[in-house]
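Handout, section B. The chain below has 186 residues.
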Amino acid sequence: LPPLSDDLTFLSPLSEARATRFVSWLAEGMGAGTTLLDVGCGWAELSLRVAAAAPLARVVGVDLDAEALEEARRRAGARGLEERTTYLTGDGAVTGPDEVDALVAIGASHVWGPETEDDQPLAYAAALAGIRQRVRRGARVVYGDGIWSRSPTPEAIAPLAGREDEFVPLAELVDLAVANGFAPVA
Protein backbone atom coordinates (compact mmCIF):
# COMPACT_ATOMS: atom_id res chain seq x y z
CA LEU A 1 0.00 0.00 0.00
CA PRO A 2 1.22 3.54 -0.68
CA PRO A 3 1.94 5.74 2.35
CA LEU A 4 -1.16 7.48 3.70
CA SER A 5 0.40 10.87 3.00
CA ASP A 6 0.46 10.22 -0.76
CA ASP A 7 -3.16 11.34 -0.94
CA LEU A 8 -2.56 14.59 0.96
CA THR A 9 -1.93 18.00 -0.51
CA PHE A 10 -0.19 19.10 2.70
CA LEU A 11 1.63 16.88 5.16
CA SER A 12 -0.77 18.01 7.87
CA PRO A 13 -4.52 18.10 8.37
CA LEU A 14 -4.93 21.39 6.53
CA SER A 15 -7.88 22.26 4.33
CA GLU A 16 -7.57 24.24 1.10
CA ALA A 17 -9.64 27.05 2.60
CA ARG A 18 -7.43 27.39 5.67
CA ALA A 19 -4.26 27.07 3.58
CA THR A 20 -5.48 29.87 1.32
CA ARG A 21 -6.05 32.13 4.34
CA PHE A 22 -2.59 31.32 5.75
CA VAL A 23 -0.88 31.92 2.41
CA SER A 24 -2.68 35.23 1.90
CA TRP A 25 -1.89 36.44 5.42
CA LEU A 26 1.76 35.37 5.25
CA ALA A 27 2.32 36.78 1.74
CA GLU A 28 0.74 40.10 2.74
CA GLY A 29 3.63 40.62 5.16
CA MET A 30 6.38 39.50 2.74
CA GLY A 31 8.04 42.25 0.72
CA ALA A 32 11.41 42.65 -0.96
CA GLY A 33 14.25 41.04 0.95
CA THR A 34 12.06 39.15 3.39
CA THR A 35 12.42 35.48 4.26
CA LEU A 36 9.96 32.84 5.40
CA LEU A 37 11.25 29.78 7.26
CA ASP A 38 9.13 26.61 7.06
CA VAL A 39 10.16 24.27 9.90
CA GLY A 40 9.26 20.65 9.19
CA CYS A 41 8.25 21.64 5.66
CA GLY A 42 7.91 18.13 4.20
CA TRP A 43 7.32 18.61 0.49
CA ALA A 44 6.68 22.30 1.21
CA GLU A 45 3.31 22.82 -0.44
CA LEU A 46 2.34 25.66 1.92
CA SER A 47 5.64 27.53 1.64
CA LEU A 48 5.70 27.09 -2.14
CA ARG A 49 2.31 28.77 -2.28
CA VAL A 50 3.66 31.63 -0.16
CA ALA A 51 6.64 31.94 -2.53
CA ALA A 52 4.26 32.18 -5.48
CA ALA A 53 2.08 34.77 -3.72
CA ALA A 54 5.02 36.89 -2.50
CA PRO A 55 7.27 37.25 -5.55
CA LEU A 56 9.87 39.44 -3.79
CA ALA A 57 10.40 37.10 -0.82
CA ARG A 58 12.64 34.10 -0.23
CA VAL A 59 11.51 30.81 1.28
CA VAL A 60 13.68 28.38 3.23
CA GLY A 61 12.27 24.99 4.20
CA VAL A 62 13.88 22.61 6.67
CA ASP A 63 13.08 18.95 7.27
CA LEU A 64 14.85 15.72 8.15
CA ASP A 65 13.12 13.79 5.34
CA ALA A 66 15.47 14.00 2.35
CA GLU A 67 12.91 12.41 0.01
CA ALA A 68 10.26 14.99 0.93
CA LEU A 69 12.78 17.78 0.37
CA GLU A 70 13.66 16.37 -3.05
CA GLU A 71 9.95 16.51 -3.88
CA ALA A 72 9.86 20.12 -2.61
CA ARG A 73 12.72 21.02 -4.94
CA ARG A 74 11.00 19.27 -7.85
CA ARG A 75 7.77 21.19 -7.18
CA ALA A 76 9.67 24.47 -6.87
CA GLY A 77 11.30 23.85 -10.25
CA ALA A 78 8.01 22.93 -11.89
CA ARG A 79 6.52 26.22 -10.67
CA GLY A 80 9.54 28.35 -11.60
CA LEU A 81 10.30 29.11 -7.96
CA GLU A 82 13.70 27.45 -7.60
CA GLU A 83 15.57 30.79 -7.59
CA ARG A 84 13.75 31.98 -4.46
CA THR A 85 13.38 28.72 -2.56
CA THR A 86 15.90 26.65 -0.64
CA TYR A 87 15.21 23.33 1.05
CA LEU A 88 17.67 22.10 3.68
CA THR A 89 18.03 18.77 5.43
CA GLY A 90 18.50 19.33 9.13
CA ASP A 91 17.16 20.11 12.55
CA GLY A 92 14.59 22.89 12.17
CA ALA A 93 15.48 24.34 15.55
CA VAL A 94 18.89 25.43 14.28
CA THR A 95 19.09 24.92 10.50
CA GLY A 96 18.40 27.82 8.16
CA PRO A 97 18.49 31.58 8.69
CA ASP A 98 18.99 32.82 12.25
CA GLU A 99 16.34 35.52 11.88
CA VAL A 100 13.33 35.58 9.56
CA ASP A 101 10.32 37.74 8.75
CA ALA A 102 7.81 34.89 8.78
CA LEU A 103 7.84 31.33 10.09
CA VAL A 104 5.62 28.31 9.63
CA ALA A 105 5.73 25.42 12.09
CA ILE A 106 2.79 23.05 11.74
CA GLY A 107 3.12 19.78 13.60
CA ALA A 108 6.75 20.58 14.40
CA SER A 109 6.77 21.33 18.16
CA HIS A 110 8.81 18.19 18.72
CA VAL A 111 11.75 19.88 16.97
CA TRP A 112 12.33 21.95 20.12
CA GLY A 113 11.38 19.26 22.64
CA PRO A 114 12.65 15.99 24.04
CA GLU A 115 13.19 12.99 21.78
CA THR A 116 9.81 11.51 20.82
CA GLU A 117 10.96 8.16 22.21
CA ASP A 118 10.85 9.75 25.67
CA ASP A 119 7.01 9.76 25.50
CA GLN A 120 6.85 13.28 26.90
CA PRO A 121 4.13 15.86 26.22
CA LEU A 122 4.60 18.18 23.26
CA ALA A 123 7.00 20.97 24.15
CA TYR A 124 4.74 23.89 23.22
CA ALA A 125 6.56 26.40 25.45
CA ALA A 126 9.98 25.34 24.15
CA ALA A 127 8.69 25.52 20.56
CA LEU A 128 7.21 28.98 21.03
CA ALA A 129 10.39 30.22 22.74
CA GLY A 130 12.52 28.77 19.94
CA ILE A 131 10.31 30.32 17.28
CA ARG A 132 10.36 33.68 19.06
CA GLN A 133 14.17 33.65 18.97
CA ARG A 134 14.16 33.09 15.18
CA VAL A 135 11.67 35.78 14.12
CA ARG A 136 12.07 39.53 13.84
CA ARG A 137 9.78 41.80 15.79
CA GLY A 138 6.48 42.04 13.91
CA ALA A 139 7.05 38.76 12.06
CA ARG A 140 4.11 36.64 11.04
CA VAL A 141 4.02 33.13 12.46
CA VAL A 142 1.75 30.23 11.64
CA TYR A 143 2.10 27.76 14.49
CA GLY A 144 -0.07 24.70 14.75
CA ASP A 145 0.08 21.45 16.61
CA GLY A 146 -2.17 18.98 18.35
CA ILE A 147 -4.47 20.26 21.08
CA TRP A 148 -7.28 18.77 23.10
CA SER A 149 -10.67 20.19 22.13
CA ARG A 150 -12.13 18.46 25.20
CA SER A 151 -10.84 16.28 28.02
CA PRO A 152 -9.21 13.20 26.51
CA THR A 153 -10.66 9.74 26.90
CA PRO A 154 -8.54 6.61 27.39
CA GLU A 155 -9.31 5.72 23.74
CA ALA A 156 -7.99 9.10 22.60
CA ILE A 157 -4.69 8.80 24.46
CA ALA A 158 -4.04 5.11 23.75
CA PRO A 159 -2.45 5.59 20.29
CA LEU A 160 -0.33 8.48 21.59
CA ALA A 161 2.11 8.23 24.49
CA GLY A 162 -0.77 7.14 26.73
CA ARG A 163 -0.63 10.45 28.55
CA GLU A 164 -3.48 12.87 29.19
CA ASP A 165 -0.96 15.72 29.11
CA GLU A 166 0.30 14.84 25.62
CA PHE A 167 -1.55 17.91 24.29
CA VAL A 168 -2.91 21.08 25.89
CA PRO A 169 -6.29 22.78 25.42
CA LEU A 170 -6.42 25.72 23.00
CA ALA A 171 -6.79 28.31 25.78
CA GLU A 172 -3.57 27.07 27.40
CA LEU A 173 -1.76 27.21 24.06
CA VAL A 174 -2.89 30.81 23.53
CA ASP A 175 -1.64 31.70 27.04
CA LEU A 176 1.73 30.09 26.23
CA ALA A 177 1.95 32.08 23.00
CA VAL A 178 1.27 35.35 24.80
CA ALA A 179 3.78 34.45 27.55
CA ASN A 180 6.38 33.97 24.82
CA GLY A 181 5.82 37.42 23.33
CA PHE A 182 3.31 36.65 20.58
CA ALA A 183 0.07 38.49 19.84
CA PRO A 184 -2.29 35.77 18.56
CA VAL A 185 -4.55 36.96 15.76
CA ALA A 186 -6.51 33.79 15.08
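Note. The helical segments are 16-28, 45-53, 66-78, 124-134, 154-157, 170-179. Compare this with the example in section A.
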